Prior knowledge:
alpha+beta
Amino acid sequence: xxxxxxxxxxxxxxxxxxxxxxxxxxxxxxxxxxxxxxxxxxxxxxxxxxxxxxxxxxxxxxxxxxxxxxxxxxxxxxxxxxxxxxxxxxxxxxxxxxxxxxxxxxxxxxxxxxxxxxxxxxxxxxxxxxxxxxxxxxxxxxxxxxxxxxxxx
Length: 153
């Protein structure tokens, strides 16, 4: 994962442990005061929130424990497409330009042009250099891109 991805997970973990967990515990305590737990909707909702939060905490802690963080500032610039770089591409069919950052699966979001290293586009780009033409298999057929620029940021 990238340094930014690791920091985002650490921030979420901190939020869950220091803000969400105490709020949920308080909500459970208040719901218990209302009496019969079998028919207490607030209690059941708070317990469901607690279950979700604890599951997410466990998931994030596991990911952070197993993560290999790649810091691009410590990688020599070679001009090749590797994990963590930002790539400017030119679609050779319609001359449109697109920029993608190649990130880990947990960080990927097409809305902000971050693609998973396991995506077909990223797999086609890895190891290539500026000026290379790559062909990507998509559900709509073959798309050819020219690598315009590789940025180690």
